[in-house]
Amino acid sequence: MYKHTLAAALAAIFTLPAHADVNIYGFISAGVESAKADGAAKPADNYKRTTRVTDENSRIGFKGSEDLGGGLKAVWQLEQSLRNFENGGVNDKGESATFATRNSFVGLSDAAAGTFVLGNYDSAYKRLTDVGLNVMSNTTADTHGSSSTYSRGETRLKNSVSWTSPNWAGFIAGFSYGFDEDRYVSTAATGEQRQNNDRWSLAGQYSNGGLKVGAGYDRAGDKFSSKEIKDKNGVVTGIDYTPNIDKTQFYKLAAAYSFTTGTTIGAGYEWGRVDYVGSKPDTKQNDWHLAVVQKFGAASVRASYGKLGKLDGDANADDFKASQWVLGATYDLTKQTQVFAYATKIKNSSAQNANFSVNPIYTSGQGSSKASLAKGTDPQAFGAGLRVNF
């Protein structure tokens, strides 16, 4: 990331005082890969091998601060995805890139009290339990996310308030709270009904030399399932919402150690629980992840393996398992520019559809918000790309 004093050029856009500094940062990254998804119970649900040019999670951000005196600063950030820039900014769900899609906030930072921000921001659970286990982060071989095989409890919280502590002798704590601003839904059975899908998390991270350890807890409130209401002619006349989930909880512990030889090893474990409304049994599911990175000067080789366990509480618990392996390599051409290569495969059991969190594969509904991967299908890809930081 490079710092540019651009106040004179950008003051009109951001209405900043003439003395303010604006940091512009981000990266452009793209690759070419071969991808497929096979193993489905129905051959029609397979995704035939396709060569595709992919955006690898590109982004651009603007951030800055103002010294208010006495150790207090005002801080702000606007970050947006440049996803699918190679495709006119439209992804496989038909969604277009918009402004402030990523971490965007305004807040206050104090050396003694920490940093408080309001906006759209990664949860404390996501930020502080990240110890570097995602060895090919921001590529198709990314392994973290709610629809992936590991760290399924992480999220970015809209309408949120977050606090991050100062660094206390290597320890950092954080808290996040995301407000549910759509509290009322209309149900056919009971009329207007209140839901409480607020979400909050608490996490901490400790660093000492080559050691980094993160632990966190995340809790989301109730959720409602939806069903279209149709008249006798099949025309949709409304949507009925029914209470479905009481609460969802995640616990996570992760650690990594970097040796002076350039070797980094790490492991993580996550446990999730979903409590349902009514007689439906509650479910529990864990996932774990192992990672290793070896650096050789400007080059590195990387590998990881993760497994999503059985869904305890379901009659067919073993059908919800999944696993993912990743092999990758990087080479830094300069401090800004890197080339990389990767290969990865997800193995899904018959009732599971874990997918790539970056550049997922869809077997139905492509180009719409209903795009999905058929259960029991195994996504896999190998490719290479170029990333330029700025």
From TrEMBL:
Q: Could you tell me which residue ranges the Porin domain spans?
A: 7-349
A GO molecular-function descriptor: porin activity
Which processes are annotated in GO (biological process)? monoatomic ion transmembrane transport
> Which keywords label this protein?
Cell outer membrane, Ion transport, Membrane, Porin, Signal, Transmembrane, Transmembrane beta strand, Transport
Name the Pfam families for this protein. Porin_4 (PF13609)
- Give the superkingdom in one word: Bacteria
Major localisation:
membrane
Which compartments is it annotated to reside in? Cell outer membrane
Q: Which residues form the signal peptide?
A: 1-20
InterPro entries attached here?
A: Gram-neg_bact_OMP, Gram_neg_porin_domain, Porin_dom_sf, Porin_Gram-ve, Porin_Neis
Cellular component (GO) terms are: cell outer membrane; pore complex
The way it spans or sits in the membrane comes to:
Multi-pass membrane protein
Q: How does it assemble?
A: Homotrimer.
PANTHER family given in the database record: MAJOR OUTER MEMBRANE PROTEIN P.IA, PROTEIN YDDL-RELATED
Q: This protein is called what?
A: Porin
Q: Which organism is it from?
A: Crenobacter caeni
Phylogenetic classification of the source organism: Bacteria, Pseudomonadati, Pseudomonadota, Betaproteobacteria, Neisseriales
